Amino acid sequence: MKLLSHLPQSGPSLYIAPLLNTVLLLVVFFLLGSSFIVQSGVSVVLPQSSSLMPNVEQSHIITVTAAPESKIYFDGHEVTLSELRTTMEGEKDSLRRAILQADQMAPYGRVMEVSSVALSLGFELMHATTPEPEP
User: Fold this and answer.
1) The dihedral of CA 71, 76, 81, 82: what is its sign?
2) CATH number, domain containing residue 79
3) At 131, is the secondary structure helix, strand, or coil?
4) CB 3.0-4.6 Å disulfide test: which of 37, 100, 104, 106 passes with 47?
């Protein structure tokens, strides 16, 4: 006895929806994934410079905010200058790189104090800037 199906035949359009969904998710993933950059959660206005910083991954970020209450942040956590030294001393086994993001209105003496701490502990220090506008 041969059984006949009375259901309509489903075509290949049934399988296009999951395929499109997967492709769109991959496109969104790669578009958004490429825009993530290393930044701290503290907002500062960086000075301009024509020099470029090499691509640095896995670096500590030290942020110095503007006056009058110039604060120091190490990897997003507020610290004092002495706490910065002890925290950075505890980083013996990890990568010894730091990016200094200092606001352009931050006191120069404060920026140099933070730089001195990082350099005295053997960290490779880079100063973050914004690119100069094109003429």
Assistant:
1) positive
2) 3.30.420.270
3) strand
4) 104
Identify whether the C-beta of residue 61 lies closer than 8 Å to the C-beta of residue 101. yes
In a domain, 72, yes or no: yes
Q: Look up the domain containing 104 and give its range.
A: 48-131
Query: What is the rounded distance in angstroms from the CA atom of residue 89 to the CA atom of residue 121?
Result: 7
Summarize pLDDT for 34-62 with one digit per residue, the tens.
665 555 566 777 777 776 666 666 788 89
Q: Closest by alpha carbon to 103, among 74, 76, 130?
A: 130
Joined together, the tokens standing for residue 53 give 């910083």
Task: Give the count of domains, the chain.
Answer: 1
Is residue 97 one of the residues assigned to a domain?
Answer: yes
Alpha carbon distance 26, 34 (integer Å): 12
8 Å CB contact between 110 and 71 = no
Burial 77-98 (b: 16+ CB within 10 A, else e): eebeeeebbeebeebeeeebeb
Q: Which of 130, 125, 129 is nearest to 62 (CA)?
A: 125
pTM over 0.70: no
119, HSE (Cβ side, Cα atoms, 13 Å): 10
